Amino acid sequence: MTTIAFETTDLPIIGAPMAGGTTTPELTAAVARAGGFPFVAGGYLTADALAPLIERMRETTENFGVNLFVPAPVPIDRGAFDAFVSALEPVAADHGVAIDPEPVEDDDHYDEKVDHLVDDPVPLVSMTFNIPAAEVVDRLHSVGTQVVATVTTTAEARTAADRGVDALIVQGPRAGGHSGTADPTRDIDDRATSDLVRDVLAEVSLPVAAGGGVDSADAVDELLQAGASAVVVGTLLLRSDEAGTSEAHRAALQSEKFDETRLTRAFTGRPARALVNDFVRKFDPIAVDAYPAVHHLTKSFRAQAKKDDDPQGLHLWAGTGFRGARTGSAETIVKELGAPFARG
């Protein structure tokens, strides 16, 4: 079995690629210095915007990955979408925000970014939101790049294996932020990530990394014992010095006012785990399966909430282990988390 890039680091810890500015170049560098495996977050970026982030990563380490969103189109129920718009408009107006009621679709510049990564190869590319086509896997393999697929079910794991990927990232339902599921319309049942890892390994013979609900070294140990060769952490790094997390988000992660998380489509039209706030309580009951249309619809509202330091209108992505997030350098956090499991 081929050794995967994330299996060669000193510590079996992977810094999650948190798109939208949360995973900064400073954060990826800190993860690398600690001996973990860093990911450049390619979501929401053009190929031209992604390129300098990759080059900055090369200045720190030669062993890293780039994460891409794979398009997973879902037909929009225009009636349900319009009803969501009608509910959002008065709330947005109260906050001085104008929203565009027409649904906006895009493919997150996926083809252009794949082309760039073929022209300027990196050690590893991971894919989320859908399983990459075999043709894309082959193109990346042709330039020496390892390909990893994020999976959330055993069926997705089998599909990914059939398409020739080198490894899997098993994402449990307790992970913060967007679910990587290839079917964003499905109901996602709660379960321990370690159980999902065991189920996947019973179906496919590929190296596995795993994440979701990680709140401590004990949680890391549980996933490694289940068969994962590395553990993905994202929420635990949200309060670190190097993360691009907003001040409102940082404060909410430790506030007694926010004491639960929920998978919701309210912010983007795709299931994502967040701290429950007023926006979730109001809009989750009428949320629609319409990513990225809902993402674009609510983007200006969320940007204003960030500007106003208003946690009640912000997408407070967080996994169930959010109380484990702490301040300090991500380098220290990763070292302390992974030290008991150091390789070699």
TrEMBL record:
Taxonomic lineage from the root: Bacteria, Bacillati, Actinomycetota, Actinomycetes, Micrococcales
Signal peptide: none
Recorded catalytic activity of this chain's protein: 3 propionate 3-nitronate + 3 O2 + H2O = 3 3-oxopropanoate + 2 nitrate + nitrite + H2O2 + 3 H(+)
Protein name, entry field: Propionate 3-nitronate monooxygenase
Family matches, as CDD domains: NPD_like
Origin species: Brevibacterium marinum
Cofactor: FMN
Gene3D superfamilies (alphabetical): Aldolase class I
Cited InterPro entries: Aldolase_TIM, NMO
Entry-linked Pfam families: NMO
Family: Belongs to the nitronate monooxygenase family. NMO class I subfamily.
Highest taxon of the lineage: Bacteria
Coiled-coil stretches: none
Keywords: Detoxification, Flavoprotein, FMN, Monooxygenase, Oxidoreductase
One GO MF term: nitronate monooxygenase activity
A GO BP entry: response to toxic substance
